[in-house]
Amino acid sequence: xxxxxxxxxxxxxxxxxxxxxxxxxxxxxxxxxxxxxxxxxxxxxxxxxxxxxxxxxxxxxxxxxxxxxxxxxxxxxxxxxxxxxxxxxxxxxxxxxxxxxxxxxxxxxxxxxxxxxxxxxxxxxxxxxxxxxxxxxxxxxxxxxxxxxxxxxxxxxxxxxxxxxxxxxxxxxxxxxxxxxxxxxxxxxxxxxxxxxxxxxxxxxxxxxxxxxxxxxxxxxxxxxxxxxxxxxxxxxxxxxxxxxxxxxxxxxxxxxxxxxxxxxxxxxxxxxxxx
Length: 276
Hints:
By secondary structure, the protein is α+β, with helices and mostly antiparallel strands. Helix content is 22%, strand content 25%.
């Protein structure tokens, strides 16, 4: 199980990213096909390939129309990453890949965020001309079938070293748990990756009971909402069947369920900018 303190520390980091601003005037035109992202940043950044990519993907185009491509049937190997993200062979038949992109520009530039899915998806943390941290969390969708998995790789810097070292262990444990649950699901139910890499046409497996509910103390309803959104973005609500529980400092109050928090946000809550 991902330790509570890890989630709390990650939550603080997540909120520091959130607070850097959501200027919607910097909206990025969107275009997605497989894992090809067309970015047209409002703030020009130098177009250059990421060093070390073994011909499986990279940047191309002009500063006004950057394009990052990587076919699904490849290993995406970034330089100096702790881990390598591998896409199983045969997954190119996926009908859709939901994507989120977050650009963290240099301090002198305006910082902004653009969601490609505004749902469960892939989150890319990029910096002007260099990868600072790659945090992939998402759901692959194949004609309505869902396969959920968390990948985490990090280009270590002094700014994120502490969080990274704490987080990797938890996510690796999650990876092992999910892989084991998927393997056990077998023909009786649950998505699984077949030996040839294709996705089985089965429903999502239930995760072990310890994954099904988190009780995370929160200072107020706004913090509970932010924490619920973080858990959702990280895939921790398992297609909204896991409830992120938030409770007030007053233990007599009933805990908030995720549906309550989302309703609060839709009616002008602290995270309305997520456009839920």
